[in-house]
Amino acid sequence: MRGQPMFILSEDSERTRGQDAQSSNIAAGKAVSNAVRTTLGPRGMDKMLVSDSGDVTITNDGATILERMDIEHPAAQMIVEVATTQEEEVGDGTTTASVLAGELLARAEDLLEDDVHPTAIVEGYHEAAQIAQEAIDDQLVEDELDDDLLQKVARSSMTGKGTGDVGAGPLAETVVKAIRQVHDGEKVQRDNVTVRTRVGSSSSATDLVEGVVADEEPAHENMPRRVQNANIAVLNLDLEVREGEIDAEYNITDIDQLEAAIDAEEGELRGYADTLKESGVDVAFVTGDVDDRVASFLASEGILAFDDIDDDDATAIARATGAKRIGTLSDIDSEDFGHADLVRVEKYGDDELTFVEGGAEAETVTVFARGGTEHVVDELERALNDALDVVTAALDKGGVVPGAGATEIAIADRLRSEAASITGRKQLAVEAFADALDVLPRTLAANAGMDPIDALVELRSTFESQHRAGLVTRGETGEVGDPIEAGVVDPAAVKREAIESATEAATMIVRIDDVIASN
């Protein structure tokens, strides 16, 4: 046995080691980053994504692009996870995080070629990320987070994204109104704001509904389409003939018995309608099934009812109106009802939507977004959700900082200043981190039609003299200026999360020197 090789891996396994493994992983990470790089900033371009089934998505949202790309390489999937984490934590900055991760990998590749050990790179990157977080704190705008500043945050998030025929300004006002509605003074209840879309009108018809918009139709065509000062019942049950708990067989021997059985069944169904009418219910949202005869009885009593309500809609309606979810009609009580100023059913094309407005609790609001085509409303929905998320992040997670690449310029300057005090080869990694941050203003400049090198030089020079400099878009191009004066601001949380997630992904990939794949 001595001297014979021992095979641990199966014959079908593929193994890549050392520099080849590092180069392969870094190349995959950079490729994914470059795929979204041209979408960055207000002058960024869109991507058209076509699925196997022919479904088309047109967007410049980094998270959506990476999610729908058919990516197989495991290192590339780590960059996708960066965008996913960024989206889940703060709702925006996915392209920024992905581009930064790719550039950190590119700079790490240069260091590896200069024989800098991966451990030194990882330690230097982590130290640089800590310095970067401190630099972000120094960039915080001290102004009060009033509606005007929050609208600038929302507008900055949506500028350059597909918003149809309406500009980012009016949409930003709607977004801030929605967030203020669910802000209790300490925390934003972001889950209480939903975006509902409908094709058939221009984007300028987008409106804020103080309540819930549900994709539900009345259970019977003769039910009222408009109920004011409505008592609302949310019922977690079926309004149909009850079935026995055991299997049983009944023998009907004459017509009187049949008529008695039919009358009993009819009486049970009529009883549901009578109970709801006597209790004072005006509108019933039922999560279960409603028998057609019950629906007819309710319609004759002037009660508006909906059946098979989605659980999320039922929860939202209960929250907005103050209703309790009722599990049985035997002990129904008016104290369990909610209240709405108006419940109306509107027709849009072949479909109907139900609006529950002016609820007693008013804890839920809906941004009702319109658009001429499915592609427009889909992109508008993504833009609105991003704007809602960044305004929430600004209020809940630490204020705002200058946008337009200004914060990245400030961070890079801090890193270069402190790199000299860092001993060993970690200093090279810190300087590389600073160089990697330059990719963001350079990309903004390139996407705006400017020369990226000239723009970067001017940004650094202006920062040295004025301590704040960003690339402000003016018409078809951009110029170096003060982003605060131009109204371009970002939540600090977006910058913090982008730095953290990009650093973690890059350092994880750099440390890999052996890839074992089973076929």
Explain what this protein looks like in three dimensions.
The chain is an alpha/beta fold. It is 48% helix and 18% strand. The chain contains 16 helices and 18 strands. Strands 6, 7, 8, 9, 10, 11 and 12 form a 7-stranded mixed sheet that branches. β8, α9 (292-300) and β9 (304-306) form a beta-alpha-beta unit. α6 packs across α7 and α12 (406-419) packs antiparallel against α13. The two termini are 29 Å apart.
Can you lay out the helices and strands and say which pair or pack?
Blueprint: E1 14-17, H1 18-37, E2 47-50, E3 56-59, H2 62-68, H3 74-90, H4 94-113, H5 118-138, H6 147-158, H7 168-181, E4 193-199, E5 207-209, E6 211-214, E7 226-235, H8 255-279, E8 283-286, H9 292-300, E9 304-306, H10 311-321, E10 325-326, E11 338-348, E12 351-359, E13 365-371, H11 374-396, E14 400-402, H12 406-419, H13 426-437, H14 439-447, H15 452-466, E15 470-474, E16 477-481, E17 489-491, H16 492-510, E18 514-517
Parallel strand pairs: 4-13, 7-8, 7-10, 8-9
Antiparallel strand pairs: 1-18, 2-3, 5-13, 6-12, 7-11, 11-12, 14-17, 15-16
